[in-house]
């Protein structure tokens, strides 16, 4: 009897949406890296995600329904906003301001491994298997090699080591956020959930940024606002797609997240192509191969 694959459960349309969302996310590393030349990390993240949340509101169609849904589910919306936007992206923007964009892409690319571990302990139908364990170990080896390649025991490498740790905390927070979203199946519209959690998470980041970074300067070049617009739109689209996919009944959270192996590959490639100060080295290439290979290994061999 043939083993049922995730593509069978998703259907072609949702499978293509999965790939599309990951490709959109892969462009964010370069955009954020350029945008951080103009604005501090927390303020940049907060403005981006508040805009993303507001962009989605007109697409809900029924504003009274939007308000009543947010009111009736305010607690879980705040929890998801805290994990998925406030913590995850606050850490992401802070971490990527310290490390190169390509390295950040590879570290964030380990998120499927974190999701698999968290899902094993929090979801009854998503337990760890030998194949998942092997994939996780292979991916973690890639992260270890990347971390050691930055020579954290030397003075010059200590700052980047801190950036790597911050990005790994981002990955963990996002993993718990994915689980929280999956547990809202059939209770909240993905569009309403995403719009509201993005808004509240972004608002929280702006408030915190004022205390730690001061009032942000909004009189910036057009280039910054073009980047901000693109990042806000891609977040609105990609995260809404992901919320929709996480709510599909037959899809396991860890299986879906394994497709995020696309993100570090394309994210690193774009950083090397667009950012003049970044170029590949043997460690980053090996890290991509191991992180991506560990995740691909899980999908290879399904009949």
Walkthrough of the structure:
There is one protein chain. The protein has helices at residues 6-26, 28-35, 41-60, 63-72, 74-96, 101-108, 111-122, 130-149, 155-182, 190-213, 222-246, 253-257, 262-274, 282-299. The chain is mostly helical and 303 residues long. It has one domain. Helix 10 packs across helix 11. The mean pLDDT is 82.
Briefly say what this structure is.
The protein is mostly helical and 303 residues long. It has one domain (6-299).
Give the SSE layout:
Layout: H1 6-26, H2 28-35, H3 41-60, H4 63-72, H5 74-96, H6 101-108, H7 111-122, H8 130-149, H9 155-182, H10 190-213, H11 222-246, H12 253-257, H13 262-274, H14 282-299
Shape label: globular
Number of strands: 0
Which structural class do the helices and strands define?
A: mainly alpha
Number of domains: 1
Give the SSE order as H and E letters: HHHHHHHHHHHHHH
Can you count the helices? Answer: 14
Please state the CA-atom Rg, rounded to the nearest Å.
19 Å
Rounded mean pLDDT is: 82
Poorly predicted segments: none
Helix share bin: over 70%
The main pleated sheet reads as:
none
Question: How far apart, in Å, are the first and last alpha carbons?
Answer: 9 Å
Beta content:
under 5%
